[in-house]
Amino acid sequence: MEKGRDEPLKFRTGPVELEFTVEVKKDGGARTRIFVLPWTVEAQGAASAGRIHRVKLTLQPVDGDGDDLKISADSPQRPE
Hints:
The protein is rod-shaped and about 95 Å long. A hairpin with a 2-residue loop joins strand 2 (about 15-35) and strand 3 (about 40-60). The relative contact order is 0.39. The chain starts with 10 loop residues before the first strand and ends in a 9-residue tail after the last strand. The protein has one domain. The protein has strands at about 10, 15-35, 40-60, 70. The protein is mainly beta. Helices cover about 0% and strands about 60% of the residues. It has no helices and 4 strands.
């Protein structure tokens, strides 16, 4: 950014949006066996619960004075 500070063509930066999706999942289960010879009884169960969270951040780049950040660069010719 320092190289293009005095260039006539500059661009103002706009908002930067970042979005994240996070899934939290909890699984659990249980199993029980009862042996009474000659029989076996078995019980089994499972449970699952989950939540999806969406986090969205909007950032606005600014310079050291709090003004909109401007980006510029050297160009061999001016755009028409």
